[in-house]
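Notes to self after the Tuesday call (sharing in case useful).
The group wants a holo model before anyone commits to mutagenesis around the pocket. I volunteered. Ligand is zinc ion. Logging inputs and output together so the record is complete.
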Amino acid sequence: MPDFVFPVAGMSWADFRERPELRGSDAGEPGRGGWHYQRSETHLHKGIDLKAPIGTPLLAVENGTAEFILAREGRSGGHRVRLTGASGAMYHYLHLGTDPAHPGDAFPAEFIDTGDRPVEVTAGTVIGYLGHTGGAVASGMSIPARAAHLHFQYHPQGGRDANPANLFDLIDTGLRIDGYVP
Ligand SMILES: [Zn+2]
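Result:
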């Protein structure tokens, strides 16, 4: 297993890079799923949206500790995973599973009851399943299967968010990216 892996199982950034239709949450706005797309005056989109079938396994990008966070009323994002990598980067995986009231298809069974306790994982560990909880269908979309996506957010050194595309480009090349700061 390489040091860093693409977060969507069975796919690579090459599958998404030239296909904007695989990004975004299907609200009909070009670019909507892109990094730093200004969705409204107050809503800057801080991640990249990656569309794939509901239930697609999502992988830990690097070795680290994962927290499995259940959907909460009034909070967007739905079921989510926060991964703190050995590199010091932080990653957010949002909209997991299909039912905000039940995490059964959001996380692997062994991770559902970990509460806020971080769990050690290695790069490539399945830490969640793609879905549409928490606002993935909030923009008038009524077809969850089409709107389902992973919202992936990347914070090098745990600080400000950076463009995940830069990280994905490096992962695709297979290079070690220890200490990489965009
Ligand atoms: Zn998003």
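Two things stood out.
The chain has three helices and ten strands.
The domain at 13-173 is CATH 2.70.70.10 (Glucose Permease (Domain IIA)).
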